Amino acid sequence: MQLLDVSFRAGSETWLHPFSLTLAEKEINVVLGATRSGKTTLLRILAGLERPRSGRLVHDGQDLTGVPVRRRSVAMVYQQFINYPSLTVFENIASPLRVAGAGKNDIQMQVAALAELLQLTPMLTRYPAELSGGQQQRVALARALARNADLLLLDEPLVNLDYKLREGLRIELAQIFSQRDATVVYTTTDPQEALQLGGFTHVLHEGRLLQSGRALDVFRHPATLDVARAFSDPPLNLIPGRFDPAGRHLLLADGSTVPLPSWLVARAAPDTIFALRPYQLTLTSRNDARCSITGVVELAEISGSETYVHLTAARASLIAQLPGVHQFELGQRCTLYFAPEDLLCFQADGTLLRGLEG
Amino acid sequence: MNRIKPVNQRAWWLVLPVLLSVAFSALIPLMTVVNYSVQDILGPSQRVFVGMEWYKETLRDPELHAALLRQLTFSIAVLLIEVPLGVALALAMPARGWRASLTLVIFAMPLLVPWNVVGTIWQIFARGDIGLLGYVLARLGIGYNYAQNPTDAWVTVLIMDVWHWTSLVALLAYAGLRAIPEAYYQAARIDGAGRWAVFRYIELPKLRPVLMIAVLLRFMDSFMIYTEPFVLTGGGPGTSTTFLSQYLTQKAVGQFDLGPAAAFSLIYFLIILLACFVLYNFMNQAETRDAT
Amino acid sequence: MARIQLIDIAHSYDPGAAPWALKPLTTTWEHGGAYALLGPSGCGKTTLLNIMSGLVRPTQGRVLFNDLDVTLLPPEARNIAQVFQFPIVYETMTVFENLAFPLRNRRWSGTEIRKRVHEIAEILELGADLGRRAQGLSAEIKQRLSLGRGLVRPDVAAVLFDEPLTVIDPHVKWLLRRKLKQIHQQLELSLVYVTHDQTEALTFADRVVVMAQGEILQTGSAEELFETPAHQFVGHFIGSPGMNFVACEWREGAARIGDAAIRSRSASPPDRVESLSLGIRPEHVTLHQAAGDNCVPARIVSLRDEGTRSIAVIEIAGQTVNARLPQAPRFSANAPLFAHFPAERCALYADGRRVA
Predict the structure, then answer these.
(1) Which residues of chain A have pLDDT under 50?
(2) Which residue of A has its CA nearest to C239?
(3) Domain shared by C232 and C248, yes or no
(4) Touching B: which chains, 3+ CB pairs < 8 A?
(5) Which one of B1, B10, B288, B292 makes the best mutation probe of the A interface by having the most chain A beta carbons within 10 Å?
(6) Are residues C198 and C98 both part of a single domain?
(7) Are residues C152 and C272 both part of a single domain?
(8) Is there a contact between A323 and C198 if contact means CB atoms under 8 Å apart?
(9) Considering its fold, how many domains does chain B have in total?
C-alpha cells in the first residue's frame, strides 16, 4: 500500500505536507512522531475516514482514495479502549464476523480462538464496563483481528495503560502481529516502543515524513538531525564543539579537546555537527571508549536499572544513560567516556554525514 | 476540525421522505407566501401584481414599528431575567441522588403545560376576584388590574413567561454544570477560592457554550411569542401587549388582507434570521477571542 | 514543611463490599522528603493521596500534620497544594492572575503579590509568559502553572502530585521532571508524587512506596527497591523488563533448578521451602558457553535488538527467563549455553515474599 503525494489541510492549517509513503506489506509499520506531528491524521487517511487534500492512496495498483471506509479491508484500534458497551465480550468480538455473514459454528470457533490468543476466555460473558483497561483494550484488539482485514491500524493503543501493562502487551502484540498476514500500522510517540516492536519505522515531524526504513536502520543511520532527535529518548546530545582541522580534534567551548581518529578526521569539516546518544556515554574508559568529556553534574535520576545523569559540559547540557544505579553529588565533577565510532555526524544543514555501524 | 466525509450516495435515499415532507409543508407554502407578497388579492380570482408595494407599505407602517419595539423590549427583558435566574436555579439544584431526580421533574413541569393553558392559568391567577394572586394583591392594598393597566399587563405577561420558560434555561445550565470535571472544584478549594470566585472563574467560562444555546433559543422563541399573551390579555389593554406575531395575525387573518400579511411575515422571518445571525456571531467571536 | 503521619488509615468507597480500596496502614512522611507512591492502576495510590490532601475522608484512621490531627479538616485548611493529572488553570485569567489567585483570596497586598508571583514564575521559568492568557498555552506550561499556583503560598506544607505528567509529551517530560527535582532542592517542601511509571517514581523520589491492591508492599530508596525487593511484585514491577522468577526446589541443602544448585545471597537456608522461586534480574544474567558455578543449561528462544540494548529470551528447565545483554552476542545457533546467575544477585521467594 502506498500514499502518493498525500497532503491534508484543515481550514487554514496544513496538517500534512505533501509526501509519499510506502507501507511494508504484511509487516509492522511504526509511525513515530511527537503529538500533533500528524500521526492520527495519517492513520485516518489510511482508514478512509478522511480524504487527503491532494494525492492518492494506492494498493496493488488500485486507487483507493475515494473508496468509503465500509468497503475497505481495514480495522482500527483506538487509544481509548472503544468497545460496544451494550454487548458482551463475546458479541463484541463476534460483531465483524456477523456483519460479514459468517455461520454460527464459524463464529463460535473464531471467537474462541481469538479469546484464547488474547487471554479473554474467562471474560466472554462479561461486559466491557466490568473489565480493566488492559482487558478492554484486548477486547478491542480481538474485535479488530476478527475482521481479518488486510490493514490493521492502531493509534497509540497502549498509551492509556500503566507502564508495566504496556510492556507486557507490547511483547504480546509483536508476537500476535508476526503470526498474522495483515499489514499493521502502529503509531507511537515513544522511540523505545518503535525499537521494541521492530519492523519498519516511519518518522513524522510537524506533518512531514522525514524517513522510512527498518527500525534499527533509521536508529543507526538517521537521514537528518531531526530524525535523530525524534528517535531519541532521552534527548540526543549535541557535542558542544567545533572540529579543528589543524589540531585534528574536536575543540570544545571550554577549551578542552577531544582527539578524533584519523578516519573521522578525514571526513569532518569545521561546521560538522557531532551528536551522541545518551546510552553511548560510559563512566569507565574502555579500549574503544577512549574519548572523554568532563563536566559538572546537574542532576542524577535513577530509574530501576539505569541512572540518567544530566551534565553541564563546555556550557552545554548533556544527558548520559548509565547502566546500574550510581549516586552522584550535585556539582560533582564527572568524566564520561565515549567511543568515536559512536558519534553521529551531520553536515551543517542537518543531513547525515556518518551513521553508526552494526 | 473540518471534516470532509467521503460521499455516500445511499444516504440521500434515506433522507428523501423527509425532504419531501419538508418541501410539502414548508417550502411550497413559503413559495406561496412569497407569491402573495407581491400581489394584491382582491378576490379569489382577482390578483394584481404590485411588486414591492406591500413591502414598502409594511415597513412604513407606524403600528408595525410600535409592535416591533414592544417585541424587542419584551425579548430583551426576557433574556435579562431568565438567563441569570436559570443559571442561579441550576446552581442551587442538587447534583445527584433522589433529590436531583425530584427537582428535575418539578422543573420540567412548567415546560409540559400546553401554552394556551399557561395563558389561561395566569389569566385566572391574576384576576382580582377569583385569582389567588389578584386577590392577595388587592387585599394588600396594591392597585393591580392587568385588564386595564398597561404596565400591570406588561409585568404579568413577563412574569408568566419567566414562570413558563426559565426552567429550560435552568435545565440546560444544569446539564452544563454536571459536565465540569470535579478536579476544577477541588483545585479551587485548595486555592481558597470563595463561592463567587468559583462561579466567575470556573463555572461561567465552562457554561458559555450552553448559555449561548439557551440565549439563542429563548430569543427566538420569545420573539415569536403568540399564544400565552393572546390568551392572557388579548393584546390589551389597547395595544400595550400586542407583540409582532399577534399584529401579523390580526392583519392576515383578521383583515383577510393576504398581500400585506404575506409581505409582513417574510419581513418578520428575515428580522428573526438577522437577529439570530448577529447574536450567534457575536457570541462566537467572544469565544474565539478568548481562545487566542 | 510538614511531617505527615497516617495512623491506621483504611478506606473503602463502599463499606459493605470487600475488598477495601486501602487496607489498614500506618506510615510517616518526614519533613522535606520527596516520596513517590508507585503502583499499577487500582492499587489505591490516588485514594491515599486524596486522604492526605483532605479531598477524601478516610473510613477509619487519623491523619496528622506536624502532630496536629487534621483528619476532619478540609483541604484548604491543611496548607497543601495538589497538582492533578490534567492541568487545572483558570482559563479566563492570564498566567500572572492565575498565580496571584490564591494570594488574592488571602487578601495579600498588590505589591506583595507581585513580588511573590515573580519569584515563583522565575523558579518555574514562567517569567516570559506572565501576560499571556491561560487558555491557549501548551499542556506542559499549564502544568507548570498549576504547580505554580500551589507553590505561590509560602505556608504550603506539602505538594501532592497525582500523575501530573500524564498529558505531557514524552520529549518534554524530562524538562518537568528536572524542574520538579530542582524545586525539591530549592524549596525544601515535602513532596508526594503518585505514578504508575517507575522512571518517574525512582527519578523523583528519595523514598518510593510501592503499592498493590490497597497495601504498601515496600518503602525504600531506588537502590533498595532495585537490589533487594522484599516482595515478588516489587521485583516484577520495578525494572524493565522486571525481575525473573524461576521456580526451584530445595533439595539437599540448596536451591535447585533442575539438577543445578544455585547459591543465593544469604548463606542460611530459608524459613520456608515450599513453592520457592529464585529471583534474578535480567541485567545480571549472563550467558556463557562453558558451565561453571551457579550456572544452568539454557537455550536461546529469541533475541531482540532494541537499539540501546539487547534482550535475549532464554529457556531454562522449561521456564522462560529474560536476559539483558549489552550488545548482540555472537553465539552460534544451537550451541549449548549456560546462564550464569551471580550468587550475590539471587534471592529466594516463597509465596511472593522474600525468604532468603
Answers:
(1) none
(2) A304
(3) no
(4) A, C
(5) B1
(6) yes
(7) no
(8) no
(9) 1
- Tell me the per-residue pLDDT of B28-86, one tens digit each, with 9 for 90 and over: 888 888 888 888 877 777 778 877 888 888 888 888 889 889 999 999 999 999 999 99
Chain B contact for C88 (CB, 8 A cutoff): yes
**Adjacent-strand bridge partners of A308:** A301, A321
Give the separation between CA A185 and CA A183, rounded to whole angstroms.
7
Q: Which residue has the cell 445571525?
A: B277
Of B149, B160, B170, residue with least CA distance to B225: B160
pLDDT digits (tens, 9 = 90+) for C337-349: 888 888 888 888 8
CATH (domain of C333): 2.40.50.140
The candidate with the shortest Cα–Cα distance to A301, out of C229, C161, C205, C187, is C205
CB contact under 8 A, B6 and A51: yes
Grid cell for residue B276: 439570530
Asked if C136 and B292 come within 8 Å (Cβ–Cβ), the reply is yes
- Per CB-CB distance under 8 Å, the chain A contacts of B2 are 10-11
Kindly state whether A48 is in contact with chain B, defined as any CB-CB distance less than 8 angstroms.
yes
Q: Is the pLDDT of residue B288 over 70?
A: no
Residue with cell 442561579: B88
Question: Counting every residue, how long is chain A?
Answer: 358
Q: Which of the two residues, C214 and A265, has the higher pLDDT score? A: C214
Last residue of a domain, one of C208, C236, C264: C236
Q: Check B186 against C90: CB less than 8 A apart.
A: no
Tell me what ipTM this predicted complex has: 0.77
Q: Which CATH number does the domain housing residue B75 bear?
A: 1.10.3720.10
Q: Are residues C199 and C52 in the same domain?
A: yes
pLDDT in tens, B62-75: 888 898 899 999 99
Q: Per the domain annotation, does B35 fall within a domain?
A: no
In total, how many domains does chain C have? 2
Do C155 and C258 reside in the same domain of the chain? no
Cβ distance A201 to A47 under 8 Å?
Answer: no
Identify whether residues C168 and C217 lie together within a single domain.
yes
Which residue, C236, C259, C290, sits at the end of a domain?
C236
Determine the structural domain holding residue B177 and report its residue range.
55-291
Residue span of the structural domain in which C180 resides:
4-236
A68 touches chain B (CB under 8 A): yes
- Do the chains contact at B2 and A10, CB–CB below 8 Å? yes
The CA angle C120-C124-C129, to the nearest 5 degrees, is: 90
- Min Cα separation B82/chain A (Å): 37
> What are the tens digits of pLDDT across the range A19-28?
888 888 888 9
Count A/C contacts: CB-CB distance under 8 Å: 98
Those residues of chain B whose CB sits closer than 8 Å to some CB in chain C are 181, 183-184, 186-187, 189-194, 197, 201-202, 205, 290-292
DSSP string computed for chain B: ----PPP-THHHHHHHHHHHHHIIIIIHHHHHHHHHHTEEEEETTEEEE-TTHHHHHHHH-HHHHHHHHHHHHHHHHHHHHHHHHHHHHHHHS--SSHHHHHHHHHHHHHHHS-HHHHHHHHHHHT-TTT-HHHHHHHHTT----TTT-HHHHHHHHHHHHHHHHHHHHHHHHHHHHHTS-HHHHHHHHHTT--HHHHIIIIIHHHHHHHHHHHHHHHHHHHHT--HHHHHHHTT-STTTT--HHHHHHIIIIIS--HHHHHHHHHHHHHHHHHHHHHHHHHHHHHHHHHH-
Q: Which three cell numbers stand for residue C262?
A: 544455585
Q: Is residue C19 reached through a cis peptide bond, with omega within 30 degrees of 0 on the bond before it?
A: yes
